[in-house]
Amino acid sequence: MLSDSDPTSVSLNSSPLDCPLPPPPVEVEPPETQKPALPLRPPSSSDEDFFSSASIASSSSSEDTHQNTPAPAQLPPQIPLSWPEGGALSREWVNGLMHCFEWASRAVPPQEFPSVLPVDVFDRLILSGHKILHKERNCVTISKDELNSDSRVVVVGDLHGQLHDVLFLLKDAGYPGDDRFFVFNGDYVDRGAWGLETFLLLLAWKVLLPDRIFLLRGNHESKYCTSVYGFEKEVLVKYGDKGKHVYRKCLGCFEGLPLASVIAGCVYTAHGGLFRSIVTTPVKRSKGKKNRKVTLNPDQTCLTLGSFEELSKARRTVLDPPWEGQNLIPGDVLWSDPSMSPGLSPNKERGIGLLWGPDCTEEFMKKFGLKLIIRSHEGPDAREKRAGMGGMDEGYTIDHVVNSGRLITIFSAPDYPQFQPTDDRYRNKGAYIVLEPPEFDTPVFHSFDAVTPRPAVNPYYDYVDVIDSDEELDLASMQPAT
Protein backbone atom coordinates (compact mmCIF):
# COMPACT_ATOMS: atom_id res chain seq x y z
CA MET A 1 0.00 0.00 0.00
CA LEU A 2 1.05 3.58 -0.46
CA SER A 3 2.20 5.82 2.31
CA ASP A 4 4.29 8.95 2.79
CA SER A 5 7.14 6.76 3.96
CA ASP A 6 6.98 4.37 0.98
CA PRO A 7 10.60 4.00 -0.20
CA THR A 8 9.46 3.96 -3.83
CA SER A 9 7.75 7.35 -3.60
CA VAL A 10 10.19 9.55 -5.49
CA SER A 11 10.23 13.32 -5.67
CA LEU A 12 10.71 15.06 -9.01
CA ASN A 13 14.30 15.82 -8.05
CA SER A 14 15.31 12.31 -7.01
CA SER A 15 18.24 10.71 -8.84
CA PRO A 16 17.67 7.35 -10.58
CA LEU A 17 19.20 4.16 -9.24
CA ASP A 18 20.64 1.52 -11.54
CA CYS A 19 19.48 -1.99 -10.74
CA PRO A 20 20.19 -4.93 -13.06
CA LEU A 21 17.35 -7.33 -13.76
CA PRO A 22 17.41 -11.04 -14.54
CA PRO A 23 18.34 -12.60 -17.89
CA PRO A 24 15.58 -13.55 -20.36
CA PRO A 25 13.54 -16.69 -19.72
CA VAL A 26 14.45 -19.90 -21.44
CA GLU A 27 12.12 -21.38 -24.02
CA VAL A 28 9.27 -23.51 -22.75
CA GLU A 29 9.36 -27.27 -23.07
CA PRO A 30 7.14 -28.72 -25.79
CA PRO A 31 3.58 -29.14 -24.52
CA GLU A 32 3.79 -32.93 -24.50
CA THR A 33 6.65 -32.83 -21.96
CA GLN A 34 4.97 -30.45 -19.57
CA LYS A 35 3.62 -31.66 -16.27
CA PRO A 36 -0.13 -32.27 -16.13
CA ALA A 37 -2.38 -29.87 -14.27
CA LEU A 38 -2.55 -30.35 -10.52
CA PRO A 39 -5.68 -31.25 -8.53
CA LEU A 40 -8.15 -28.43 -8.17
CA ARG A 41 -9.35 -26.44 -5.21
CA PRO A 42 -11.57 -23.35 -4.89
CA PRO A 43 -9.76 -20.00 -5.21
CA SER A 44 -9.23 -17.73 -2.23
CA SER A 45 -11.37 -14.62 -2.05
CA SER A 46 -8.72 -12.66 -0.15
CA ASP A 47 -6.39 -10.30 -2.00
CA GLU A 48 -3.62 -11.02 0.51
CA ASP A 49 -4.12 -14.80 0.32
CA PHE A 50 -3.97 -14.63 -3.46
CA PHE A 51 -0.45 -13.24 -3.36
CA SER A 52 0.79 -15.05 -0.24
CA SER A 53 2.57 -17.78 -2.19
CA ALA A 54 3.33 -15.91 -5.42
CA SER A 55 6.89 -15.06 -6.35
CA ILE A 56 6.79 -11.26 -6.67
CA ALA A 57 9.34 -8.49 -6.88
CA SER A 58 9.76 -5.90 -4.16
CA SER A 59 9.45 -2.30 -5.26
CA SER A 60 12.48 -1.25 -3.23
CA SER A 61 15.68 -0.35 -5.03
CA SER A 62 17.81 -3.04 -3.40
CA GLU A 63 19.92 -5.03 -5.82
CA ASP A 64 18.78 -8.19 -4.05
CA THR A 65 15.17 -7.78 -5.16
CA HIS A 66 15.73 -9.45 -8.51
CA GLN A 67 17.45 -12.46 -6.96
CA ASN A 68 14.17 -14.00 -5.84
CA THR A 69 14.07 -17.63 -4.78
CA PRO A 70 11.07 -19.22 -6.45
CA ALA A 71 8.22 -19.60 -3.98
CA PRO A 72 6.36 -22.89 -3.66
CA ALA A 73 3.86 -23.33 -6.47
CA GLN A 74 0.40 -21.98 -5.75
CA LEU A 75 -2.31 -24.50 -5.17
CA PRO A 76 -4.44 -24.56 -8.29
CA PRO A 77 -7.81 -22.82 -8.47
CA GLN A 78 -11.14 -24.29 -9.38
CA ILE A 79 -11.27 -24.44 -13.16
CA PRO A 80 -12.82 -23.98 -15.60
CA LEU A 81 -14.13 -20.58 -14.58
CA SER A 82 -17.87 -20.07 -14.87
CA TRP A 83 -19.85 -16.85 -15.17
CA PRO A 84 -21.33 -15.88 -11.79
CA GLU A 85 -24.95 -16.69 -11.14
CA GLY A 86 -27.09 -13.64 -11.69
CA GLY A 87 -24.54 -12.19 -14.11
CA ALA A 88 -23.01 -9.57 -11.78
CA LEU A 89 -19.27 -9.73 -11.10
CA SER A 90 -17.95 -9.60 -7.55
CA ARG A 91 -14.54 -8.97 -6.05
CA GLU A 92 -14.33 -12.65 -5.24
CA TRP A 93 -14.86 -13.54 -8.89
CA VAL A 94 -12.25 -11.04 -10.12
CA ASN A 95 -9.78 -12.29 -7.47
CA GLY A 96 -10.45 -15.82 -8.68
CA LEU A 97 -9.79 -14.73 -12.27
CA MET A 98 -6.41 -13.26 -11.28
CA HIS A 99 -5.56 -16.42 -9.36
CA CYS A 100 -6.51 -18.62 -12.31
CA PHE A 101 -4.50 -16.60 -14.81
CA GLU A 102 -1.37 -16.51 -12.65
CA TRP A 103 -1.53 -20.22 -11.88
CA ALA A 104 -2.34 -21.22 -15.45
CA SER A 105 0.62 -19.22 -16.79
CA ARG A 106 2.87 -21.65 -14.93
CA ALA A 107 0.90 -24.89 -15.10
CA VAL A 108 -1.28 -24.98 -18.22
CA PRO A 109 0.03 -25.13 -21.83
CA PRO A 110 -1.24 -22.16 -23.87
CA GLN A 111 -3.33 -24.35 -26.19
CA GLU A 112 -5.28 -25.60 -23.17
CA PHE A 113 -6.33 -22.12 -22.10
CA PRO A 114 -10.05 -22.84 -22.76
CA SER A 115 -9.87 -25.30 -19.86
CA VAL A 116 -9.27 -22.23 -17.68
CA LEU A 117 -11.50 -19.64 -19.38
CA PRO A 118 -14.09 -21.28 -21.65
CA VAL A 119 -15.26 -19.41 -24.73
CA ASP A 120 -18.74 -18.86 -23.31
CA VAL A 121 -17.28 -17.12 -20.24
CA PHE A 122 -15.00 -15.05 -22.45
CA ASP A 123 -18.05 -14.04 -24.49
CA ARG A 124 -19.95 -12.87 -21.40
CA LEU A 125 -16.98 -10.85 -20.14
CA ILE A 126 -16.11 -9.25 -23.49
CA LEU A 127 -19.76 -8.35 -24.16
CA SER A 128 -20.13 -6.75 -20.72
CA GLY A 129 -16.97 -4.72 -21.23
CA HIS A 130 -17.87 -3.81 -24.81
CA LYS A 131 -21.19 -2.28 -23.73
CA ILE A 132 -19.51 -0.13 -21.06
CA LEU A 133 -16.57 1.06 -23.18
CA HIS A 134 -18.59 2.00 -26.25
CA LYS A 135 -20.84 4.24 -24.14
CA GLU A 136 -17.92 6.28 -22.78
CA ARG A 137 -16.79 9.52 -24.35
CA ASN A 138 -13.57 9.94 -26.28
CA CYS A 139 -12.15 11.80 -23.30
CA VAL A 140 -13.29 10.40 -19.96
CA THR A 141 -13.14 12.48 -16.80
CA ILE A 142 -12.59 12.04 -13.09
CA SER A 143 -13.99 15.25 -11.71
CA LYS A 144 -12.96 17.06 -8.54
CA ASP A 145 -16.44 16.30 -7.18
CA GLU A 146 -15.69 12.56 -7.29
CA LEU A 147 -12.46 12.96 -5.30
CA ASN A 148 -11.92 13.65 -1.61
CA SER A 149 -9.13 13.75 0.97
CA ASP A 150 -8.92 9.95 1.00
CA SER A 151 -8.85 9.53 -2.79
CA ARG A 152 -5.88 8.47 -4.88
CA VAL A 153 -5.65 8.26 -8.66
CA VAL A 154 -3.17 5.74 -10.07
CA VAL A 155 -1.95 6.30 -13.65
CA VAL A 156 -0.40 3.30 -15.41
CA GLY A 157 1.60 3.16 -18.64
CA ASP A 158 2.33 0.41 -21.17
CA LEU A 159 1.88 -3.18 -19.91
CA HIS A 160 2.47 -5.27 -23.06
CA GLY A 161 1.21 -8.63 -21.87
CA GLN A 162 3.50 -8.85 -18.83
CA LEU A 163 0.82 -10.42 -16.63
CA HIS A 164 2.90 -11.05 -13.54
CA ASP A 165 4.12 -7.45 -13.38
CA VAL A 166 0.51 -6.26 -13.75
CA LEU A 167 -0.60 -8.43 -10.82
CA PHE A 168 2.24 -7.05 -8.74
CA LEU A 169 1.42 -3.47 -9.71
CA LEU A 170 -2.23 -3.85 -8.67
CA LYS A 171 -1.24 -5.18 -5.27
CA ASP A 172 1.52 -2.62 -4.78
CA ALA A 173 -0.66 0.35 -5.72
CA GLY A 174 -3.69 -0.93 -3.80
CA TYR A 175 -6.65 -2.51 -5.52
CA PRO A 176 -9.35 -0.35 -7.11
CA GLY A 177 -12.07 0.77 -4.76
CA ASP A 178 -14.27 3.65 -3.67
CA ASP A 179 -11.29 5.93 -3.02
CA ARG A 180 -8.76 4.42 -5.42
CA PHE A 181 -9.15 5.24 -9.10
CA PHE A 182 -7.06 3.78 -11.93
CA VAL A 183 -6.34 5.24 -15.37
CA PHE A 184 -4.54 2.82 -17.71
CA ASN A 185 -2.84 4.52 -20.64
CA GLY A 186 -3.09 1.69 -23.19
CA ASP A 187 -0.86 -0.96 -24.79
CA TYR A 188 -2.17 -3.96 -22.85
CA VAL A 189 -1.19 -6.49 -25.53
CA ASP A 190 1.62 -7.46 -27.95
CA ARG A 191 5.29 -8.35 -27.39
CA GLY A 192 4.62 -10.08 -24.06
CA ALA A 193 3.21 -13.61 -23.84
CA TRP A 194 0.09 -12.90 -21.75
CA GLY A 195 -1.64 -10.04 -23.56
CA LEU A 196 -4.99 -11.82 -23.55
CA GLU A 197 -4.91 -12.42 -19.80
CA THR A 198 -3.72 -8.87 -19.13
CA PHE A 199 -6.50 -7.26 -21.13
CA LEU A 200 -9.23 -9.56 -19.81
CA LEU A 201 -8.35 -9.13 -16.14
CA LEU A 202 -8.36 -5.32 -16.52
CA LEU A 203 -11.64 -5.59 -18.41
CA ALA A 204 -13.06 -7.62 -15.51
CA TRP A 205 -12.07 -4.85 -13.10
CA LYS A 206 -13.72 -2.36 -15.47
CA VAL A 207 -16.97 -4.34 -15.49
CA LEU A 208 -16.86 -4.64 -11.70
CA LEU A 209 -16.05 -0.96 -11.04
CA PRO A 210 -16.83 1.01 -14.20
CA ASP A 211 -16.49 4.40 -12.49
CA ARG A 212 -13.17 3.58 -10.81
CA ILE A 213 -11.29 1.95 -13.70
CA PHE A 214 -10.61 3.72 -16.98
CA LEU A 215 -9.02 1.82 -19.83
CA LEU A 216 -7.65 4.09 -22.55
CA ARG A 217 -6.57 2.91 -25.96
CA GLY A 218 -2.94 2.46 -26.98
CA ASN A 219 -1.52 2.24 -30.48
CA HIS A 220 -1.13 -1.54 -30.04
CA GLU A 221 -4.88 -1.96 -29.57
CA SER A 222 -5.26 -2.08 -33.35
CA LYS A 223 -5.55 -4.69 -36.09
CA TYR A 224 -2.21 -3.80 -37.64
CA CYS A 225 -0.10 -3.94 -34.49
CA THR A 226 -1.73 -7.06 -33.09
CA SER A 227 -1.15 -8.89 -36.37
CA VAL A 228 2.57 -8.00 -36.33
CA TYR A 229 3.59 -8.05 -32.65
CA GLY A 230 2.03 -11.26 -31.44
CA PHE A 231 -1.42 -10.75 -29.95
CA GLU A 232 -3.35 -12.24 -32.89
CA LYS A 233 -1.19 -15.36 -32.90
CA GLU A 234 -1.39 -15.59 -29.11
CA VAL A 235 -5.19 -15.68 -29.28
CA LEU A 236 -5.19 -18.23 -32.12
CA VAL A 237 -2.86 -20.52 -30.19
CA LYS A 238 -4.81 -20.23 -26.95
CA TYR A 239 -8.28 -20.72 -28.45
CA GLY A 240 -7.57 -22.88 -31.49
CA ASP A 241 -10.58 -23.20 -33.78
CA LYS A 242 -12.38 -20.51 -31.74
CA GLY A 243 -9.37 -18.18 -31.96
CA LYS A 244 -10.66 -16.07 -34.85
CA HIS A 245 -13.90 -15.48 -32.98
CA VAL A 246 -12.06 -14.43 -29.80
CA TYR A 247 -9.65 -12.18 -31.71
CA ARG A 248 -12.50 -10.48 -33.57
CA LYS A 249 -14.33 -9.82 -30.30
CA CYS A 250 -11.19 -8.33 -28.75
CA LEU A 251 -10.73 -6.00 -31.74
CA GLY A 252 -14.31 -4.85 -31.35
CA CYS A 253 -13.64 -4.06 -27.73
CA PHE A 254 -10.41 -2.21 -28.62
CA GLU A 255 -12.39 0.06 -30.94
CA GLY A 256 -14.46 1.21 -27.98
CA LEU A 257 -11.55 2.16 -25.73
CA PRO A 258 -11.57 5.91 -24.97
CA LEU A 259 -8.67 8.01 -26.25
CA ALA A 260 -7.83 10.25 -23.30
CA SER A 261 -8.73 11.33 -19.78
CA VAL A 262 -8.82 14.50 -17.71
CA ILE A 263 -8.32 14.11 -13.96
CA ALA A 264 -9.44 16.76 -11.46
CA GLY A 265 -9.67 19.28 -14.28
CA CYS A 266 -5.90 19.74 -14.41
CA VAL A 267 -4.26 16.47 -15.56
CA TYR A 268 -4.49 15.23 -19.16
CA THR A 269 -3.52 11.64 -19.96
CA ALA A 270 -3.31 9.86 -23.32
CA HIS A 271 -1.19 7.10 -24.76
CA GLY A 272 0.77 9.19 -27.27
CA GLY A 273 -0.14 12.74 -26.36
CA LEU A 274 -1.19 15.89 -28.18
CA PHE A 275 -3.13 16.18 -31.41
CA ARG A 276 -3.72 18.58 -34.29
CA SER A 277 -6.64 20.79 -35.15
CA ILE A 278 -8.53 19.70 -38.24
CA VAL A 279 -9.06 22.81 -40.34
CA THR A 280 -12.50 23.20 -41.89
CA THR A 281 -12.83 25.08 -45.16
CA PRO A 282 -16.27 26.25 -46.31
CA VAL A 283 -16.89 25.66 -49.99
CA LYS A 284 -19.80 27.30 -51.85
CA ARG A 285 -22.33 25.00 -53.42
CA SER A 286 -23.87 25.64 -56.82
CA LYS A 287 -26.38 28.45 -57.19
CA GLY A 288 -29.74 27.84 -55.62
CA LYS A 289 -28.47 25.67 -52.78
CA LYS A 290 -29.08 27.06 -49.33
CA ASN A 291 -26.35 25.15 -47.52
CA ARG A 292 -22.64 25.33 -48.02
CA LYS A 293 -20.52 22.22 -48.22
CA VAL A 294 -17.80 21.98 -45.54
CA THR A 295 -14.67 20.04 -46.39
CA LEU A 296 -11.88 19.09 -44.04
CA ASN A 297 -8.40 20.13 -45.01
CA PRO A 298 -5.75 18.60 -42.73
CA ASP A 299 -2.94 20.70 -44.24
CA GLN A 300 0.40 19.27 -43.10
CA THR A 301 2.13 22.61 -43.73
CA CYS A 302 0.14 24.65 -41.19
CA LEU A 303 -0.32 22.41 -38.17
CA THR A 304 -1.94 23.80 -35.04
CA LEU A 305 -2.90 22.14 -31.77
CA GLY A 306 -6.40 20.74 -31.46
CA SER A 307 -9.04 21.35 -28.81
CA PHE A 308 -10.98 19.11 -26.47
CA GLU A 309 -14.08 19.88 -28.50
CA GLU A 310 -12.39 18.47 -31.60
CA LEU A 311 -11.18 15.47 -29.61
CA SER A 312 -14.73 14.78 -28.47
CA LYS A 313 -15.97 14.67 -32.09
CA ALA A 314 -13.25 12.39 -33.50
CA ARG A 315 -14.36 8.94 -34.64
CA ARG A 316 -12.41 6.48 -32.53
CA THR A 317 -14.15 3.28 -33.64
CA VAL A 318 -11.62 2.34 -36.30
CA LEU A 319 -9.50 -0.81 -36.30
CA ASP A 320 -6.42 1.17 -37.37
CA PRO A 321 -6.40 4.93 -36.72
CA PRO A 322 -5.78 6.64 -40.08
CA TRP A 323 -2.53 8.42 -40.95
CA GLU A 324 -4.19 10.34 -43.78
CA GLY A 325 -7.64 11.65 -44.65
CA GLN A 326 -10.08 13.46 -42.42
CA ASN A 327 -10.00 11.47 -39.16
CA LEU A 328 -6.44 12.14 -37.97
CA ILE A 329 -6.99 12.95 -34.31
CA PRO A 330 -7.15 9.30 -33.08
CA GLY A 331 -3.84 8.55 -34.80
CA ASP A 332 -2.27 11.64 -33.27
CA VAL A 333 -3.45 10.81 -29.76
CA LEU A 334 -2.14 7.23 -29.99
CA TRP A 335 1.11 7.63 -31.96
CA SER A 336 2.57 11.10 -31.27
CA ASP A 337 5.79 11.80 -29.35
CA PRO A 338 7.28 14.81 -27.54
CA SER A 339 10.46 16.42 -28.77
CA MET A 340 13.00 18.83 -27.35
CA SER A 341 12.79 20.90 -30.55
CA PRO A 342 10.08 23.58 -30.63
CA GLY A 343 7.10 23.39 -32.92
CA LEU A 344 4.52 20.92 -34.19
CA SER A 345 5.40 18.66 -37.11
CA PRO A 346 4.53 15.29 -38.67
CA ASN A 347 6.16 12.33 -36.94
CA LYS A 348 8.23 11.12 -39.89
CA GLU A 349 10.06 8.54 -37.77
CA ARG A 350 6.85 6.61 -37.12
CA GLY A 351 4.98 7.58 -40.27
CA ILE A 352 1.90 8.56 -38.25
CA GLY A 353 1.10 11.13 -35.57
CA LEU A 354 3.04 14.24 -34.56
CA LEU A 355 6.15 15.51 -32.85
CA TRP A 356 5.63 18.44 -30.49
CA GLY A 357 8.05 20.63 -28.56
CA PRO A 358 8.00 22.30 -25.12
CA ASP A 359 6.35 25.39 -26.61
CA CYS A 360 3.39 23.25 -27.70
CA THR A 361 3.18 21.66 -24.26
CA GLU A 362 3.03 25.13 -22.69
CA GLU A 363 0.45 26.35 -25.20
CA PHE A 364 -1.84 23.36 -24.67
CA MET A 365 -1.56 23.44 -20.87
CA LYS A 366 -2.10 27.17 -20.60
CA LYS A 367 -5.07 27.16 -22.96
CA PHE A 368 -6.90 24.41 -21.06
CA GLY A 369 -5.79 25.13 -17.50
CA LEU A 370 -3.66 22.00 -17.15
CA LYS A 371 -0.78 21.44 -14.76
CA LEU A 372 0.31 17.98 -15.82
CA ILE A 373 0.33 15.86 -18.99
CA ILE A 374 0.95 12.13 -18.54
CA ARG A 375 1.57 10.02 -21.64
CA SER A 376 3.20 6.64 -22.31
CA HIS A 377 4.06 4.98 -25.65
CA GLU A 378 7.87 4.90 -25.33
CA GLY A 379 9.84 2.15 -23.62
CA PRO A 380 13.60 1.82 -23.22
CA ASP A 381 14.06 0.59 -26.78
CA ALA A 382 12.30 3.66 -28.20
CA ARG A 383 14.11 6.14 -25.99
CA GLU A 384 17.48 4.67 -26.89
CA LYS A 385 17.01 6.07 -30.40
CA ARG A 386 15.75 9.53 -29.42
CA ALA A 387 18.53 12.08 -29.06
CA GLY A 388 17.96 14.56 -26.26
CA MET A 389 15.17 12.57 -24.58
CA GLY A 390 15.63 10.88 -21.21
CA GLY A 391 16.06 7.12 -20.84
CA MET A 392 13.50 4.80 -19.31
CA ASP A 393 15.70 3.08 -16.68
CA GLU A 394 13.34 4.00 -13.83
CA GLY A 395 10.09 3.56 -15.75
CA TYR A 396 9.41 7.27 -16.23
CA THR A 397 10.90 10.48 -17.59
CA ILE A 398 10.09 14.16 -17.10
CA ASP A 399 10.24 15.39 -20.68
CA HIS A 400 9.12 19.01 -20.58
CA VAL A 401 9.15 21.46 -17.68
CA VAL A 402 7.30 24.64 -18.69
CA ASN A 403 5.67 27.56 -16.88
CA SER A 404 2.30 25.84 -16.64
CA GLY A 405 3.55 22.45 -15.46
CA ARG A 406 5.21 19.24 -16.61
CA LEU A 407 4.99 16.62 -19.33
CA ILE A 408 5.76 13.07 -18.14
CA THR A 409 6.17 9.73 -19.90
CA ILE A 410 5.24 6.69 -17.77
CA PHE A 411 6.08 3.11 -18.77
CA SER A 412 4.86 0.23 -16.60
CA ALA A 413 6.47 -2.84 -18.20
CA PRO A 414 9.77 -3.66 -16.41
CA ASP A 415 12.55 -5.65 -18.09
CA TYR A 416 10.94 -4.85 -21.44
CA PRO A 417 10.52 -6.24 -24.00
CA GLN A 418 9.99 -9.73 -22.63
CA PHE A 419 11.76 -11.28 -25.65
CA GLN A 420 15.05 -9.70 -26.72
CA PRO A 421 17.51 -11.05 -29.30
CA THR A 422 20.64 -10.36 -27.23
CA ASP A 423 21.78 -11.07 -23.68
CA ASP A 424 22.40 -7.34 -23.21
CA ARG A 425 18.90 -6.48 -21.99
CA TYR A 426 17.57 -3.00 -21.21
CA ARG A 427 16.84 -4.09 -17.63
CA ASN A 428 14.51 -1.14 -17.07
CA LYS A 429 12.21 -0.76 -14.11
CA GLY A 430 8.50 -0.21 -14.55
CA ALA A 431 6.67 2.62 -12.81
CA TYR A 432 3.25 4.01 -12.04
CA ILE A 433 2.14 7.45 -10.84
CA VAL A 434 -0.08 8.27 -7.89
CA LEU A 435 -1.95 11.58 -7.82
CA GLU A 436 -2.84 12.67 -4.30
CA PRO A 437 -5.13 15.27 -2.70
CA PRO A 438 -5.83 18.08 -2.42
CA GLU A 439 -5.10 19.17 -6.00
CA PHE A 440 -4.13 15.83 -7.64
CA ASP A 441 -1.60 17.65 -9.82
CA THR A 442 1.68 16.52 -8.23
CA PRO A 443 2.94 13.10 -9.39
CA VAL A 444 4.36 10.61 -6.90
CA PHE A 445 6.45 8.04 -8.76
CA HIS A 446 6.63 4.36 -7.80
CA SER A 447 9.28 2.35 -9.61
CA PHE A 448 9.40 -1.45 -9.39
CA ASP A 449 11.45 -4.36 -10.67
CA ALA A 450 10.15 -7.21 -12.82
CA VAL A 451 8.55 -10.21 -11.16
CA THR A 452 11.00 -13.10 -11.26
CA PRO A 453 11.22 -15.74 -12.39
CA ARG A 454 8.88 -15.37 -15.32
CA PRO A 455 7.36 -18.65 -16.46
CA ALA A 456 9.22 -20.05 -19.46
CA VAL A 457 7.23 -19.50 -22.64
CA ASN A 458 7.73 -19.15 -26.37
CA PRO A 459 7.14 -15.82 -28.15
CA TYR A 460 4.17 -15.32 -30.46
CA TYR A 461 6.02 -13.16 -33.00
CA ASP A 462 9.40 -12.98 -34.71
CA TYR A 463 11.01 -10.65 -32.21
CA VAL A 464 14.38 -10.76 -33.99
CA ASP A 465 13.32 -9.56 -37.45
CA VAL A 466 10.01 -7.81 -36.76
CA ILE A 467 9.61 -4.25 -38.10
CA ASP A 468 10.35 -1.70 -35.41
CA SER A 469 7.18 0.14 -34.31
CA ASP A 470 9.36 3.06 -33.22
CA GLU A 471 10.41 3.58 -36.81
CA GLU A 472 8.38 4.07 -39.99
CA LEU A 473 5.52 1.59 -40.22
CA ASP A 474 4.37 -0.51 -43.13
CA LEU A 475 1.40 1.76 -43.70
CA ALA A 476 0.27 -0.17 -46.75
CA SER A 477 -0.50 -3.13 -44.48
CA MET A 478 -2.78 -1.11 -42.24
CA GLN A 479 -6.52 -0.81 -42.72
CA PRO A 480 -7.61 1.74 -45.35
CA ALA A 481 -7.94 5.24 -43.96
CA THR A 482 -11.49 6.28 -43.09
UniProtKB/TrEMBL annotation:
One of its GO terms (molecular function) is protein serine/threonine phosphatase activity. Residues 1-16 have a biased composition (Polar residues). Residues 216-221 form the Serine/threonine specific protein phosphatases domain. Pfam families: Metallophos. Residues 19-28 have a biased composition (Pro residues). It catalyses: O-phospho-L-threonyl-[protein] + H2O = L-threonyl-[protein] + phosphate. Its EC number is 3.1.3.16. Residues 51-62 have a biased composition (Low complexity). Keywords: Hydrolase, Manganese, Metal-binding. It comes from the Eukaryota. Residues 1-81 are annotated as: Disordered. Its cofactor is Mn(2+). Belongs to the PPP phosphatase family. This is Serine/threonine-protein phosphatase. It comes from Oldenlandia corymbosa var. corymbosa.
